[in-house]
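Operator note (shift B, R.M.): manual run for Metallo-beta-lactamase domain-containing protein requested after the automated queue skipped it. Running by hand, logging everything below so the morning shift can see what happened. Input copied straight from the record, untouched. If output looks odd, do not overwrite the archive copy; leave it for review.
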Amino acid sequence: MEMTILGCSGSLAGPGNAASGYLLRMSDGEKILMDIGPGALARLQVHDAPGDVHMVFSHLHPDHCLDFPSLLVWQRYHPTDAATRRHTLLGPAITPVHLGRASADTLEDVDDFTDIFDMVPWNAPRGDAVVFPSPEYVGHRIGAARLYAAPAVHPTESYLIRVEDADGSSLVYSGDTAATDHLAALAAGADVLLCEATWGERDNGNNPPQMHMSGEEAGQAAAAAGVGTLILTHIPPWGDPEGALRGARRYFDGPVELAAPDMVVTPGR
Ligand SMILES: [Zn+2]
Ligand SMILES: [Zn+2]
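Run finished. Output pasted below as returned.
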Protein backbone atom coordinates (compact mmCIF):
# COMPACT_ATOMS: atom_id res chain seq x y z
CA MET A 1 0.00 0.00 0.00
CA GLU A 2 0.95 3.60 -0.38
CA MET A 3 -0.18 6.42 1.89
CA THR A 4 -0.31 10.06 0.77
CA ILE A 5 -0.74 12.59 3.55
CA LEU A 6 -3.35 15.14 2.44
CA GLY A 7 -3.25 17.01 5.73
CA CYS A 8 -1.93 16.30 9.21
CA SER A 9 -2.49 19.49 11.20
CA GLY A 10 -3.86 18.70 14.65
CA SER A 11 -7.22 19.98 15.91
CA LEU A 12 -7.67 22.38 12.97
CA ALA A 13 -6.11 23.18 9.61
CA GLY A 14 -2.93 25.26 9.70
CA PRO A 15 -1.15 27.48 7.20
CA GLY A 16 -0.35 25.22 4.25
CA ASN A 17 -1.57 22.10 6.05
CA ALA A 18 -5.09 20.66 5.95
CA ALA A 19 -6.55 18.96 9.00
CA SER A 20 -6.42 15.15 9.16
CA GLY A 21 -6.71 13.29 5.85
CA TYR A 22 -4.75 10.24 4.67
CA LEU A 23 -5.19 8.62 1.26
CA LEU A 24 -4.33 4.92 1.05
CA ARG A 25 -3.80 3.35 -2.36
CA MET A 26 -4.05 -0.39 -1.96
CA SER A 27 -2.29 -3.04 -4.05
CA ASP A 28 -5.59 -4.12 -5.68
CA GLY A 29 -6.28 -0.55 -6.88
CA GLU A 30 -8.87 0.36 -4.21
CA LYS A 31 -8.52 3.77 -2.59
CA ILE A 32 -9.34 4.36 1.05
CA LEU A 33 -9.49 7.79 2.66
CA MET A 34 -8.84 7.84 6.40
CA ASP A 35 -10.52 10.94 7.86
CA ILE A 36 -11.42 14.04 5.85
CA GLY A 37 -10.84 17.16 7.90
CA PRO A 38 -11.08 20.76 6.64
CA GLY A 39 -8.89 21.23 3.56
CA ALA A 40 -8.33 17.51 2.93
CA LEU A 41 -10.74 17.31 -0.02
CA ALA A 42 -8.90 20.14 -1.79
CA ARG A 43 -5.61 18.25 -1.41
CA LEU A 44 -7.27 15.01 -2.52
CA GLN A 45 -8.10 16.72 -5.82
CA VAL A 46 -4.40 17.48 -6.26
CA HIS A 47 -3.38 13.87 -5.71
CA ASP A 48 -6.27 11.79 -7.08
CA ALA A 49 -9.88 11.74 -8.29
CA PRO A 50 -12.28 11.86 -5.29
CA GLY A 51 -15.07 10.02 -7.14
CA ASP A 52 -13.84 6.53 -6.31
CA VAL A 53 -12.67 6.56 -2.69
CA HIS A 54 -13.92 4.54 0.24
CA MET A 55 -14.17 6.39 3.57
CA VAL A 56 -12.88 5.39 6.98
CA PHE A 57 -13.38 7.54 10.08
CA SER A 58 -11.39 7.33 13.31
CA HIS A 59 -13.98 9.60 14.95
CA LEU A 60 -16.20 12.55 14.12
CA HIS A 61 -14.57 15.57 15.69
CA PRO A 62 -14.75 18.45 13.20
CA ASP A 63 -11.05 18.36 12.30
CA HIS A 64 -11.53 14.76 11.05
CA CYS A 65 -14.83 14.90 9.14
CA LEU A 66 -16.00 18.37 8.06
CA ASP A 67 -15.12 17.94 4.37
CA PHE A 68 -17.36 14.86 4.16
CA PRO A 69 -20.53 16.70 3.02
CA SER A 70 -18.48 18.15 0.16
CA LEU A 71 -17.18 14.68 -0.76
CA LEU A 72 -20.84 13.61 -1.00
CA VAL A 73 -21.50 16.50 -3.40
CA TRP A 74 -18.55 15.40 -5.54
CA GLN A 75 -19.51 11.72 -5.60
CA ARG A 76 -23.20 12.55 -6.32
CA TYR A 77 -23.00 15.36 -8.81
CA HIS A 78 -19.59 15.59 -10.48
CA PRO A 79 -20.22 15.61 -14.25
CA THR A 80 -17.43 13.16 -15.07
CA ASP A 81 -16.18 11.72 -11.77
CA ALA A 82 -19.34 10.91 -9.80
CA ALA A 83 -19.39 7.58 -7.98
CA THR A 84 -20.32 4.68 -10.24
CA ARG A 85 -20.78 2.25 -7.32
CA ARG A 86 -21.52 2.43 -3.62
CA HIS A 87 -18.38 2.79 -1.57
CA THR A 88 -17.76 1.43 1.89
CA LEU A 89 -17.82 3.78 4.87
CA LEU A 90 -16.39 2.43 8.12
CA GLY A 91 -16.93 4.64 11.14
CA PRO A 92 -18.51 5.21 14.55
CA ALA A 93 -22.10 4.04 14.94
CA ILE A 94 -23.21 7.69 15.20
CA THR A 95 -21.97 8.46 11.66
CA PRO A 96 -25.25 8.29 9.64
CA VAL A 97 -27.03 10.77 11.92
CA HIS A 98 -24.04 12.95 12.73
CA LEU A 99 -22.83 13.44 9.16
CA GLY A 100 -26.35 13.16 7.74
CA ARG A 101 -27.21 16.27 9.73
CA ALA A 102 -24.08 18.05 8.53
CA SER A 103 -25.26 17.45 4.97
CA ALA A 104 -28.98 18.24 5.50
CA ASP A 105 -31.01 21.25 4.32
CA THR A 106 -33.07 21.85 7.46
CA LEU A 107 -32.60 21.42 11.20
CA GLU A 108 -34.88 18.38 11.36
CA ASP A 109 -33.46 16.73 8.27
CA VAL A 110 -30.87 13.94 8.13
CA ASP A 111 -29.40 13.40 4.66
CA ASP A 112 -29.61 9.72 3.73
CA PHE A 113 -26.29 9.06 1.99
CA THR A 114 -26.80 5.33 1.46
CA ASP A 115 -27.01 6.09 -2.29
CA ILE A 116 -23.26 6.76 -2.13
CA PHE A 117 -21.91 4.93 0.90
CA ASP A 118 -22.60 1.58 2.47
CA MET A 119 -22.19 2.52 6.15
CA VAL A 120 -20.67 -0.16 8.37
CA PRO A 121 -20.10 0.62 12.06
CA TRP A 122 -16.69 -0.44 13.39
CA ASN A 123 -16.67 -3.86 14.92
CA ALA A 124 -14.20 -3.38 17.80
CA PRO A 125 -13.56 -5.63 20.78
CA ARG A 126 -15.30 -4.57 23.97
CA GLY A 127 -13.80 -4.87 27.40
CA ASP A 128 -10.30 -4.31 28.64
CA ALA A 129 -7.99 -6.40 26.51
CA VAL A 130 -7.18 -6.10 22.83
CA VAL A 131 -5.25 -9.09 21.50
CA PHE A 132 -4.19 -8.83 17.88
CA PRO A 133 -4.19 -11.02 15.94
CA SER A 134 -6.61 -13.47 17.46
CA PRO A 135 -9.28 -15.74 15.95
CA GLU A 136 -12.02 -13.79 17.72
CA TYR A 137 -10.86 -10.49 16.25
CA VAL A 138 -13.25 -9.93 13.37
CA GLY A 139 -12.13 -7.27 10.93
CA HIS A 140 -13.69 -5.64 7.89
CA ARG A 141 -12.91 -5.97 4.20
CA ILE A 142 -12.52 -3.28 1.58
CA GLY A 143 -11.46 -5.00 -1.65
CA ALA A 144 -8.59 -7.30 -0.71
CA ALA A 145 -7.61 -5.24 2.34
CA ARG A 146 -8.55 -6.04 5.90
CA LEU A 147 -9.25 -3.36 8.49
CA TYR A 148 -9.42 -3.72 12.26
CA ALA A 149 -10.43 -1.26 14.96
CA ALA A 150 -9.90 -0.97 18.70
CA PRO A 151 -11.39 1.55 21.13
CA ALA A 152 -9.46 4.79 21.55
CA VAL A 153 -9.55 7.02 24.63
CA HIS A 154 -11.14 10.29 23.53
CA PRO A 155 -14.29 12.26 24.45
CA THR A 156 -16.38 10.95 21.54
CA GLU A 157 -16.76 7.44 20.04
CA SER A 158 -13.23 6.97 18.65
CA TYR A 159 -11.16 4.16 17.19
CA LEU A 160 -7.60 3.07 16.55
CA ILE A 161 -7.37 1.57 13.06
CA ARG A 162 -5.16 -1.16 11.58
CA VAL A 163 -5.05 -1.60 7.80
CA GLU A 164 -3.55 -4.73 6.27
CA ASP A 165 -3.01 -4.85 2.53
CA ALA A 166 -3.07 -8.06 0.49
CA ASP A 167 0.59 -7.40 -0.35
CA GLY A 168 1.46 -8.00 3.32
CA SER A 169 2.07 -4.36 4.27
CA SER A 170 0.40 -2.94 7.37
CA LEU A 171 -0.29 0.46 8.86
CA VAL A 172 -1.84 1.49 12.17
CA TYR A 173 -3.41 4.91 12.69
CA SER A 174 -4.04 6.16 16.21
CA GLY A 175 -6.70 8.70 15.25
CA ASP A 176 -7.06 10.90 18.33
CA THR A 177 -6.47 9.16 21.62
CA ALA A 178 -4.90 9.43 25.02
CA ALA A 179 -2.26 6.80 25.78
CA THR A 180 -3.81 3.33 25.90
CA ASP A 181 -2.47 -0.23 25.92
CA HIS A 182 -4.88 -0.93 23.06
CA LEU A 183 -2.58 0.99 20.71
CA ALA A 184 0.53 -1.18 21.17
CA ALA A 185 -1.69 -4.29 21.07
CA LEU A 186 -3.34 -3.34 17.78
CA ALA A 187 -0.04 -2.10 16.28
CA ALA A 188 1.92 -5.28 17.08
CA GLY A 189 4.51 -5.81 14.35
CA ALA A 190 3.01 -3.21 11.98
CA ASP A 191 5.23 -1.69 9.30
CA VAL A 192 4.14 1.86 10.13
CA LEU A 193 2.53 3.44 13.18
CA LEU A 194 0.97 6.79 12.30
CA CYS A 195 0.54 8.16 15.80
CA GLU A 196 -0.75 11.42 17.15
CA ALA A 197 1.60 13.47 19.34
CA THR A 198 -0.55 16.51 20.05
CA TRP A 199 1.08 17.43 23.37
CA GLY A 200 4.64 17.75 22.02
CA GLU A 201 7.51 16.19 23.98
CA ARG A 202 5.53 15.24 27.09
CA ASP A 203 2.27 16.05 28.82
CA ASN A 204 2.89 19.22 30.83
CA GLY A 205 0.19 18.30 33.35
CA ASN A 206 -2.08 21.19 32.36
CA ASN A 207 -3.69 19.42 29.40
CA PRO A 208 -7.19 17.98 29.60
CA PRO A 209 -7.10 14.28 30.54
CA GLN A 210 -8.35 11.40 28.33
CA MET A 211 -7.69 13.40 25.19
CA HIS A 212 -4.32 13.18 23.38
CA MET A 213 -0.80 11.74 23.45
CA SER A 214 2.70 13.16 23.72
CA GLY A 215 5.79 12.29 21.67
CA GLU A 216 7.10 10.28 24.61
CA GLU A 217 3.89 8.24 24.75
CA ALA A 218 3.97 7.69 20.98
CA GLY A 219 7.55 6.42 21.30
CA GLN A 220 6.56 4.09 24.12
CA ALA A 221 3.68 2.66 22.06
CA ALA A 222 5.94 2.17 19.01
CA ALA A 223 8.57 0.39 21.12
CA ALA A 224 6.02 -1.84 22.85
CA ALA A 225 4.44 -2.76 19.50
CA GLY A 226 7.75 -3.34 17.72
CA VAL A 227 6.69 -1.38 14.65
CA GLY A 228 8.99 -0.64 11.72
CA THR A 229 8.59 3.13 11.49
CA LEU A 230 6.89 5.72 13.67
CA ILE A 231 5.33 8.77 12.04
CA LEU A 232 4.14 11.53 14.37
CA THR A 233 1.04 13.44 13.36
CA HIS A 234 -1.84 15.66 14.56
CA ILE A 235 0.45 18.36 15.92
CA PRO A 236 -1.51 21.65 16.09
CA PRO A 237 -0.24 24.89 14.53
CA TRP A 238 0.77 26.07 18.03
CA GLY A 239 2.39 22.73 18.86
CA ASP A 240 5.98 21.59 19.23
CA PRO A 241 6.96 19.12 16.48
CA GLU A 242 10.65 19.10 17.42
CA GLY A 243 9.73 18.34 21.02
CA ALA A 244 7.44 15.52 19.88
CA LEU A 245 10.33 14.04 17.87
CA ARG A 246 12.69 14.32 20.83
CA GLY A 247 10.20 12.66 23.14
CA ALA A 248 9.48 9.78 20.74
CA ARG A 249 13.18 9.11 20.07
CA ARG A 250 13.80 8.82 23.79
CA TYR A 251 11.74 5.61 23.83
CA PHE A 252 11.81 4.23 20.27
CA ASP A 253 15.05 3.17 18.57
CA GLY A 254 13.61 2.78 15.05
CA PRO A 255 13.05 5.51 12.47
CA VAL A 256 10.83 8.39 13.66
CA GLU A 257 9.51 11.00 11.25
CA LEU A 258 7.16 13.95 11.37
CA ALA A 259 4.11 13.72 9.12
CA ALA A 260 4.00 16.45 6.48
CA PRO A 261 1.50 17.46 3.80
CA ASP A 262 2.04 15.64 0.47
CA MET A 263 4.41 13.13 2.09
CA VAL A 264 4.17 9.66 0.54
CA VAL A 265 4.78 6.63 2.75
CA THR A 266 5.12 3.03 1.53
CA PRO A 267 4.76 0.71 4.55
CA GLY A 268 6.94 -2.38 4.36
CA ARG A 269 9.40 -0.93 1.87
ZN1 LIG B 1 -8.24 15.76 16.01
ZN1 LIG C 1 -10.65 14.39 18.27
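Quick read of the result: The mean pLDDT is 97. The chain is about 20% helix and 25% strand.
Leaving this for review. - R.M.
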